[in-house]
Amino acid sequence: MTSRLVRLSAAFTVGLVLAFASFVAPSVADDDAYPSRPITVIVPFPPGGSSDIIMRIASQKASEILKQPIIIENRPGGAGNVAAVVIKHATPDGYLLMMGHTGTHAVNPSLYTNLAFDPVKDFQPVVPLISFNNILLVPADSPAKSVKDLVALAKSKPEGLSYGSQGIGTGGHLLGELLAKHAGIKLLHVPYRGIAPAVTDAVAGRVDMIFSSYISSAGYIESGKLRMLATSGTVRHPRIPDVPTMAESGYPDVHMEQWFGLFAPAGTPRPIVDKLNAAYVASLNSDAVKDRVVPQVATVIPGTPEDLEAMMKRDIVRLGKVVKESGAQVPQ
Questions:
Q1: What is the pLDDT of residues 308-328, one digit of tens each?
Q2: Among 54, 52, 58, 55, residue whose Cα is nearest residue 285
Q3: Fold classified for 135-231
Q4: C-alpha–C-alpha distance, residues 60 and 279, integer Å
Q5: How are beta strands 135-139 and 112-113 bridged, if at all?
Q6: Considering only CA atoms, which of 331, 160, 178 is closest in space to residue 249?
Q7: What average pLDDT does the structure give for the chain?
């Protein structure tokens, strides 16, 4: 009887091991075979913008490395929240990803009430992609030739100065809040529905200043209709080496590098994340990508998933504080 029990026990154990192996093996094999079909990356902006273009450039090279098409799907709406909710509920298999950014994954948690996703819990960071700095711009006929001049001008007016942005909670808005706080000046925020009308009104002098990306204002800058006073980065950009940083202008706390990164749904297997990361890092390090990014006064920032996670968590705290101090709130 004892011998028979031993044989039965051994048979049961072997059967259990084989059953477990058959359950696990397809998952491992799937990870090894990834990708076996096209990958879709959702971009939370309309087609044709600088971020959309850069995502397409970086994905083209990554597609060659992964030997599968990478399809860019534009899904704007809700300041990126629409796209984020889609990824939150997506299958974590590496075939549906999102280009997230400072707004969606760092600012929106503080800006929106009842946000339908958690940027830390609902996403798996994959790779940091690019960053860009906003530029402090004034109309050509403004008496301010430097940040020092602009601050003095604001202090000379009881009502202060006005500044435009592409909307509440955007980089341009928060940089204005930081400048007002650290320079001790009054700034009236005028939010627009997009950057184009804000830039147009800055050129016309209907607002006194604006923080804008270079690419959104390039035509007016190059024609002399807008004057660059400083960038919001920590170092000067090689494309505009004569433009000082806000730190060099006396305001080291008025800085923001707006980053973009690739995110997958939480629970995506690490081997898949690593394959995606390696492909995009190689793409971002290629001259073909760098040569398209640098002229837009942007910077490639290839790194690890942990690098992107650290950037996100840092800005959730830092920019969340700025949002709360500004009193800005948007119902979700």
A1: 999 999 999 999 999 998 888
A2: 58
A3: D-Maltodextrin-Binding Protein; domain 2 (3.40.190)
A4: 10
A5: unpaired
A6: 178
A7: 90
